Amino acid sequence: MKRIFLIMAVLYNSLLMAQNEIEPNSKVTPPAKIQEVFQKEYPNVKPVWILEYVGDDNDEIRYEAKFKSKDGEALAVYDNLAILRAFELAIPTSKVPKVALSYLKQYYPKSKIGECSIVVDDKNKTTYEVGIQNNSKFYDVVFDQKGGFNVIIQKD
């Protein structure tokens, strides 16, 4: 009887722990240090925080703050040590380098251009990301600071 009770207690406890795990892409409240760093950089801004898992094994935590800046829609990405890993700002197509737009016109002439953004990473490297729809699939086409093609990434 004690064994059955012990097994039931372990199973019940496991069930409760599984329910408490945070789902990726869910709204969260980040640790105080991350909130403090964000508020110092963007005072009086109320972001929506989302949790993401990244890395080769999805074992690295990122906290994404989505917010409206004076320049438009923005996203600030922090790691669990409150280090800013990337900043992304939505931009109009007219702000994408002409070389990049020429590349898209040449290689994806029938594709519809969606969102465009400028991204600055933690090494201060600037890239442009242009979302396109091609053959009913969505892609991010990434260009360097001067508009040279870098990579294309299929989105889910």
Report on this structure.
β7 and β8 (149-155) form a beta hairpin. Mean pLDDT is 87; it is low at 4-20. The protein is of the alpha+beta class. 25% of the residues lie in helices and 42% in strands. The longest helix is centred in the N-terminal third of the chain and has 19 residues, at 2-20. It has helices at residues 2-20, 32-41, 98-107; strands at residues 48-54, 60-69, 72-79, 84-91, 112-121, 126-134, 137-143, 149-155. The chain has an eight-stranded antiparallel beta sheet with strand order 1-2-3-4-5-6-7-8, with no helix packed on it. The protein is built from three helices and eight strands; from the N terminus they run ααββββαββββ.
- The shape is globular
Q: How many extended strands?
A: 8
Distance between the termini: 50 Å
Instruction: Give me the number of helical elements.
Output: 3
Helix percentage: 25-40%
User: What is the mean pLDDT?
Assistant: 87
Order of helices and strands: HHEEEEHEEEE
The gyration radius over C-alpha positions equals 21 Å
Largest sheet entry: 8 strands, antiparallel
- Assembly annotation: single chain
**Percentage beta strand:** 35-45%
Low-confidence stretches: 4-20
Strand line-up of the largest beta sheet? 1-2-3-4-5-6-7-8
